[in-house]
């Protein structure tokens, strides 16, 4: 368990209006390669870990969008920082059967 949860919706601006799904797939692959715990949801992906590491992953995601041809990127981010520990499971366990 880390000290933060970070949810991100990444919105790349493509060169010629291409579908952004391939870009989003690349962004999620960066999260997966990082090794942090994460959950993909319909409108955003939530990561669990150390706040510094999570922001580093966001930086890599944004850089990858540009490297893959996006003109710019909007990243909508929500952060829960809790120094004594934060986990997705703890916040959602009462909703799981």
TrEMBL record:
Q: Which InterPro entries match?
A: MTH1187/YkoF-like, Thiamine_BP, UPF0045_domain
Pfam families for this protein: Thiamine_BP (PF01910)
Which GO cellular component term is one of those annotated? cytosol
Alphabetized SUPFAM superfamilies for the sequence = MTH1187/YkoF-like
Q: Where is the Thiamine-binding protein domain?
A: 7-95
Protein family (similarity comment): Belongs to the UPF0045 family.
Q: Which PANTHER family match?
A: UPF0045 PROTEIN ECM15
Q: What is this protein called?
A: Thiamine-binding protein domain-containing protein
Q: Please give the organism.
A: Planococcus antarcticus DSM 14505
């Amino acid at each position: 368990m880390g000290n933060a949860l970070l949810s991100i919706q990444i919105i790349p601006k493509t060169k010629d209006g291409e579908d952004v799904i391939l870009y989003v797939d690349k962004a999620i692959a960066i999260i997966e390669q990082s090794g942090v715990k994460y959950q993909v949801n319909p409108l955003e992906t939530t990561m669990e870990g150390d706040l510094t590491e999570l922001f580093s992953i966001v930086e890599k995601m944004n850089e990858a969008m540009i490297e893959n041809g996006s003109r710019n990127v909007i990243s909508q981010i929500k952060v829960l920082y809790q120094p004594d520990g934060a986990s997705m499971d703890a916040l959602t366990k009462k909703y799981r059967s």
